[in-house]
Design goal:
Blueprint lengths: L17 H11 L8 E4 L9 H16 L4 E6 L9 H14 L7 E3 L4 H13 L3 E4 L3 H8 L16 H12 L9 E4 L14 E5 L13 E3 L1 H11 L4 E5 L6 H10 L7 E5 L3 E2 L6 H9 L14 H7 L3 H11 L7 E2 L1 H15 L1 E3 L1 E2 L2 E6 L7 E7 L9 E7 L1 E5 L19 E4 L4 E9 L6 E9 L16 E2 L1 E3 L4 E8 L24 E9 L11 E4 L3 E5 L8 E7 L4 H8 L3
Parallel strand pairs: 1-2, 2-3, 8-9, 10-11, 12-25, 14-20, 18-21, 23-27
Antiparallel strand pairs: 4-5, 5-6, 6-7, 13-24, 14-17, 15-16, 17-22, 18-19, 19-20, 23-24, 25-26, 26-27
Helix pairs in contact: 2-11, 7-8, 11-12
Bound molecules: adenosine-5'-triphosphate and magnesium ion.
Length: 570
């Protein structure tokens, strides 16, 4: 298919992917009266993850790009066992946070229970559905396998009258759970297992979060899903590849029922991300087993977790655009997601100084009690962000890692006798390292400073190679910082049957409690982003209290993706 189209000026405006190409063609040929209606249909049985973001960006993006396009948010809440109000609340919050608004188009499959019931009755009336009284186990045995055809149920030839009567009595609560189901009457010999008389209704005495105890029979997902799309007038039902084999069944339902709207289903490859799992079932397992602190643990690939970690909606949208959509399954390196994040935070984050593992520095030739205010630029990428004053004094903290008693070659930071620049301030030279007599650990550095170097260079042309970040010891504030690594050691932890818990990275979180940051950060609001010079991007965690700020390291500065691109290897 030629997917290129030309606008009136002859400039190419090719759709950016095969789904958009199909839709452009449908619009051109006047299908659905040229309308585009898409939807995002989550089952409210967990929090949304980054894979869902791909689907949301795609569906909403397509609706927005096309004139008059409409986007629906629909909860596919047909299963009464799993749905919880908490998940509905979080899904709405996350879709909005990602930057998408459904307006009046919020729907629930459960709102269609009456209509779906009537559809089922119509199938029975047309001889296309029957009440089957085999047990669940028997139904499974009769279904056959990929290599073996199924066997027909002994109940398959019940009369229409008998089926209507039984189905009504199922609805009225006359039978126990599991005694009967309603099945579509299709083809037990079909090579597609989905077509072997699938169950479309089952008895389940369970309250539903919206319909309460009004129903004791519930439609199966496959029946409800495609018909909900049709009821809503969805023109393009975009879903992931694992539903390719369900399409014939969906088409069968829609054809049998002669519905006015027959959505066109298009499948694309789901997002897989390295070093994590994107399955609500597995993520729920991590939450339930206490492997993480909750759905919004900053190590989770959920939107709530990514948000708490410090991801911005812009960075996630940019990521989704970068990966695009295709028909072939692949695994995206998590480094690409981090790369998109850095690009966004680089523009957005105010630079500050924060010392994660403080080492005290005393500047012996700096007068006791003297305090200077030095100018520091807030973001070299954005002059509009202005500058701030930082406080310099006789006692500072620097990063422990920035000092070595026996420096290796090319260690351009501080060592006995060496000189470095302090960012936005003076050159200092280390005279002596004071050690704890018991442990032998270096606890303080005695240094001198050169008052002539306040501009960041020396009038005598003396060069220093290292520039360190620092904070004033008496003025800085103590904070907690949580550092993260990938949740799993294994780049591909998702394999079926694998032990999820055993695959976890035991070092995925490190909590530092005695970090020091500039006093200007007092009162920083949860969710605000900062770059701690040389240390990475950080975000204020909601666990912060008036007394103590808590930061999450969103991502370190080193960009492994840029390196992969540069060198062609990880
Ligand atoms: P999970 O496998 O995480 O449980 P799901 O498919 O069961 O996901 P749903 O709530 O049914 O979760 O998903 C809503 C929509 O999001 C569906 O249209 C589904 O195709 C899409 N989706 C789910 N996971 C991904 C993914 N990894 N990449 C792209 N789209 C996804
Ligand atoms: Mg699903």
């Amino acid at each position: 298919m030629n997917t290129d189209s030309k606008n009136t000026r002859g400039r190419k405006t090719s759709p950016s992917d095969f789904i958009r190409a199909i839709i452009a063609e449908d619009i051109k040929t006047g299908k659905n009266g040229g309308r585009v209606v898409t939807r995002f249909p989550p089952e409210p049985n967990g929090y949304l993850h980054i894979g869902h973001a791909k689907s949301i960006c795609l569906n909403f993006g397509i609706a927005r790009e096309n004139k008059g396009g409409v986007f629906h948010l629909r909860f596919d809440d047909t299963n009464p066992a799993k749905e919880e109000a908490e998940y509905i609340r979080s899904i709405k919050e996350d879709v909005r946070w990602l930057g998408f608004e459904w307006g009046d188009h919020l729907y629930y499959s459960s709102d269609y229970f009456d209509q779906l019931y009537r559809y089922a009755v119509r199938l029975i009336e047309n001889g296309k559905a029957y009440v089957c009284s085999l047990s669940r186990q028997e139904i499974r045995e009769y279904r056959g396998t990929l290599t073996k055809p199924g066997r027909e149920s002994p109940y398959r030839d019940r009369t229409v009258g008998e089926n209507l009567d039984l189905f009504e009595r199922m609805r009225d609560g006359e039978f126990e759970d599991g005694t009967h189901v309603l099945r579509a009457r299709i083809d037990m010999a079909s090579p597609n297992l989905n077509m072997r008389d699938p169950t479309i209704y089952r008895i389940r005495r369970q309250s539903h979060h919206r319909t309460g105890d009004r129903w004791c029979i519930y439609p199966m997902y496959d029946f409800a899903h495609c018909l909900s799309d049709s009821i809503e007038g969805i023109t393009h039902s975009i879903c992931t590849l694992e539903f390719e084999n369900n399409r014939p069944l969906y088409d069968w339902f829609l054809d049998q029922l002669k519905v006015p709207c027959h959505p066109r289903q298009i499948e694309f490859a789901r997002l897989n991300l390295s070093h994590t799992v994107l399955s609500k079932r597995k993520l729920l397992e991590l939450v339930k087993k206490g492997c993480v602190t909750g759905w919004d643990d900053p190590r989770m690939p959920t939107l709530a977790g990514l948000r708490r970690r410090g991801y911005t909606p812009e960075s996630i949208r940019a990521f989704c655009e970068t990966i695009g959509v295709a028909k072939r399954e692949s695994v995206v390196d998590i480094a690409l997601l981090e790369h998109c994040l850095r690009v966004d935070l680089n523009r957005r984050a105010k630079r500050v100084m924060g010392v994660l593992r403080p080492l005290r520095v005393v500047i012996e030739n700096y007068p006791e009690g003297k305090v200077e205010e030095l100018e520091a630029i807030n973001n070299p990428e954005d002059p509009g962000m202005g500058s701030r004053k930082i406080i310099f004094s006789r006692e500072l903290f620097i990063e422990k890692d920035d000092f070595r008693e026996d420096p290796p070659k090319k260690f351009f930071r501080l060592a006995p006798g060496s000189e470095v620049r302090l960012k936005h301030a003076y050159f200092i030279k280390c005279r002596e390292a004071i050690k704890d007599p018991q442990t032998g650990e270096v606890v303080e550095l005695r240094c001198t400073y050169d008052p002539e170097t306040r501009s960041g260079s020396s009038p005598d042309g003396r060069k220093v190679k290292g520039t360190l970040h620092w904070v004033s010891a008496p003025h800085s504030i103590e904070t907690e910082v949580r550092l993260y690594d990938t949740l799993f050691k294994d780049p591909d932890p998702g394999g079926e049957g694998g032990d999820l818990k055993a695959a976890l990275n035991p070092d995925s979180r490190e909590i530092l409690t005695s970090c020091r940051v500039e006093p200007g950060l007092v009162g920083a609001l949860p969710g605000s982003h900062y770059q701690f010079l040389r240390m990475g991007y950080f975000c204020v965690d909601p666990d912060s209290s008036d007394g103590k700020l808590v930061f999450n390291r969103t991502v370190p500065l080193r960009d492994t993706w840029a390196k992969i691109e540069r060198t062609g290897k990880g």
